[in-house]
Amino acid sequence: MAVTAPFEIEPIRTTRTFEAAIERLTEAVERAGLRTGDRLPNEGALAAQLGISKPTLRQALRVLELSGLVDVRRGKSGGIFVATDLVPAVALYSAVKLEERAAIDVLRARRVLERAVAHEAQRRATAADYAAIERTIRLLEDHLGERPSVMRADAMFHRALVRSCHNETIQTAMQDVARGLSPIRDAYSGGFATDRQTLDVHRRQLQAMRQRDADALEAILDEHFRMLETQFAKGIGRRWSDIFGARARRSS
Q1: Which residues span the domain enclosing 232?
Q2: In a domain, 234, yes or no
């Protein structure tokens, strides 16, 4: 079925990006008078209207699908379809909380696994590995101010770091973490100032690895992890210490 009314969404101007996307999409479905089985615009059109990337949109759609509002079908005959005439507000709230819980799990897993990867890479990296990591840092610097390019360079840095471990099992494990982090980085990472901070952290991390300074590397990693964790906590209206502090980790 086709969309029965103009489907217009206000662009998002907030740090709580994926939650704002959920609100905008839900409002738009109601305003357009869509019914069960009606098709929404495709991902590209929705992301463009909302002013967000596809990873963030997919995170929002995943929540809407869990709540029972939409049905996302893949393949040639697929699309995004309204699954019910009634907007399930309570289920939607629960689905948002589940998504936040999943994001927290990914960020905590990143602390454990990426820390181990960095120390293993410090032990195993060759001169060629360091050159590959350094190249990603130059790419990030060259594209400061271009958010999509900065995020790609950042992802390249982490992939080069993982390859420096020379361990296929580690690479497989970190691919799962990277997939989980992608929408979180997109939704909650900051702007130009944060990009410059990321560049600085990457430079100092590479220097600590080359100098085989494990203590310095540990401090830099903690700083690196906190950057995204702090933005995420702020985005969902909580404090970093309540989610990632020692007491929070013990009680979870």
Answers
A1: 102-251
A2: yes
Rounded to whole angstroms, the Cα distance separating 215 from 207 reads 12
pLDDT per position as a tens digit, 128-165: 999 999 999 999 999 998 888 998 999 999 999 999 99
Separation between Cα atoms, residue 11 and residue 185, nearest integer Å: 19
For residues 170-199, b (16+ Cβ closer than 10 Å) or e, as one string? Answer: beebbeebbebbbbbbbbbbbeeeebbebb
User: Which pLDDT score, from 0 to 100, does residue 6 have?
Assistant: 63
Strand intervals (E) in the chain: 70-73, 79-82
pTM for this entry: 0.73
68 Rama class: left (phi>0) / alpha (psi -120 to 50) / beta: left
Q: Are residues 43 and 114 in the same domain?
A: no
Residue 7 lies in a domain: no
| pLDDT tens figures, 48-76 | 998 888 878 888 898 898 888 999 998 87
The DSSP symbol for 80 reads: E
Q: In total, how many domains does the chain have? A: 2
Residue bearing tokens 């615009």: 41
> Encoding tokens for residue 208?
């600590």
CATH number at residue 75: 1.10.10.10
- Single-letter amino acid, residue 101: R
> 224, 205 in Cβ contact below 8 A?
yes
Please name the residue that has the structure tokens 């098709």: 39
Both 24 and 128 in one domain: the answer is no
- The answer to whether residues 132 and 76 belong to one domain is no
Tell me if 8 is assigned to some domain: no
Residues 62 and 187 in one domain: no
Pick out the chain residues at pLDDT < 70.
Answer: 1-16, 88, 190-191, 246-252
